[in-house]
Design goal:
The protein is built from 4 helices and no strands. By secondary structure, it is mainly α. It has a domain of about 220 residues. The two termini are about 80 Å apart. The C terminus is likely disordered.
């Protein structure tokens, strides 16, 4: 089945490569000059736009910064003056309204006449204080608005005069560029579509039957494998589980048997070796003591011994045979 799949897919991949590689080369040959031309047209346009906008922004900054400073110098004293006038007015209004509110709360149903007698003088007093404040504010704001209008209108006119030709020139350059791009890209897209659609249809016609055939072959194979492997696994389980249990029982019994045999053997060996060691010690110690006592005599004989005789040490021999 793998060989059949390879026989179907390899020619399909080769054919796909033979069709797509020339298409990619042709697409690259058409798009690279288009991108280069677009870059050659856009880079000078961006440079020119930058050269025109940077001085415009610098000039606008030079005109707006003094205007903002002047506006700040005019508005800050005006705000301070307004605060100085409105804060005492608000405090006085609170002092006048608070007792009235307390009285209104204490008397849930005050008379309309009493309410009118208290509110009318208050409204008159408030009008007398606010009208001069509004007049003074108007006298300060009208010249400020006129000054701002005189400064901002020429600035807006100048900006309009500079930006409108810039926008018109930009449009005159970009519209032909967009038209040219559209004229080049539309046929390219149409040609690409004409080449890719038949290729996709051909691929679909070849791959769908191949997938259907593979499915028809793989599904029965999977079912057959499942039917064969499940009984095989059950049979192996039935064989291996008793075998493992029996092997474990034999190993446990072997370990127990070896333990039962080795423990008495080690005890018996100890019982035999200990008396043997004691007996050897009892025999060798007197022998070593006797040899040490005869050492002067042996040394004298050694001094009269013939050349070439081997000498030995009693102390060394005693040390070697003296053990516990």
């Amino acid at each position: 089945m793998a060989a059949s799949l390879k026989q179907h897919l390899v020619p399909l991949a080769v054919s796909l490569k033979q069709q797509l590689v020339p298409l990619a080369v042709s697409l690259k040959q058409q798009l690279v000059p288009l991108a280069v031309g677009l870059k050659q047209q856009l880079v000078p346009l961006v440079v020119s736009l930058k050269q025109q906008l940077v001085p415009l922004a610098a000039g606008l900054k030079q005109q707006l910064v003094p205007l903002a400073v002047s506006l700040q110098q005019l508005l800050v004293p005006l705000a301070v003056s307004l605060q100085q006038q409105l804060v005492p007015l608000a405090v006085g209004l609170k002092q006048q309204l608070f007792p009235f509110a307390v009285s209104l709360k204490q008397h849930e149903a005050p008379l309309a006449v009493g309410l009118k007698q208290q509110l009318v003088p208050l409204a008159v007093s408030l009008k007398q204080q606010l009208v001069p404040l509004a007049v003074g504010l108007r006298q300060q704001l009208v010249p400020l608005a006129v000054s701002l209008n005189q400064q901002l209108v020429p600035l807006a006119v100048s900006l309009k005069q500079q930006l409108v030709p810039l926008a018109v020139g930009l449009r005159q350059q970009l519209v032909p560029l967009a038209v040219s791009l559209k004229q080049q890209l539309v046929p390219l897209a149409v040609g690409l579509k004409q080449q890719l659609v038949p290729l996709a249809v051909s691929l679909k016609q070849q791959l769908v039957p191949l997938a259907v055939g593979l499915r028809q072959q793989l599904v029965p194979l999977a079912v057959s494998l499942k039917q064969q492997l499940v009984p095989l696994a059950d049979s192996l389980k039935q064989l291996l589980v008793p075998l493992a249990v029996g092997l474990r029982q034999q190993l446990v019994a072997l370990v127990v048997s070896m333990k039962q045999q080795l423990v008495p053997f080690s005890v018996s060996l100890k019982q035999q070796l200990v008396p043997l060691a004691v007996s050897l010690k009892q025999q060798l110690v007197p022998l070593a003591v006797g040899l040490r006592q005869q050492a002067p005599f042996l040394a004298l004989q050694q001094s009269h011994a013939t050349p070439g005789c081997v000498s030995w040490s009693v102390a060394t021999l005693e040390d070697r045979i003296h053990f516990h």
